[in-house]
Design a protein that fits this description.
- By secondary structure, the chain is mostly helical.
- It is built from three helices and two strands.
- The protein has a two-stranded antiparallel ribbon with strand order 1-2.
- It starts with a helix and ends with a strand.
Amino acid sequence: MNLDSAQAIITHLQTENNRLIALLEAHGIAWQVPKTPEVKEQIETQATFTVNEKIALFRQLFKGRADVYPVRWESKTTGKSGYQP
C-alpha cells in the first residue's frame, strides 16, 4: 500500500466518522462518555460484581433452550473427547 492510498483510506474513514457523529447528534444520541472523576468512579464501581451477580449475568447472556443438552463424544482414533449440542 502506498502513501496516497493509505491517506485516501484515512480520509474516507474520517469522513465516515464525521457523518456518523452528525447522525447520532441529530437524533440526540449521546456518543461520548464525559471524562469526569464521577464517571470514572461510576464505571469502576459498575465493573465490580459479586459471584452471584456474575453467574446471573452469564446465564442471562448465554441462556438457551432448557430442553437441549450437550452430548459427550470420544474419538476412537485420537482419544480426544468433548461435548456438542
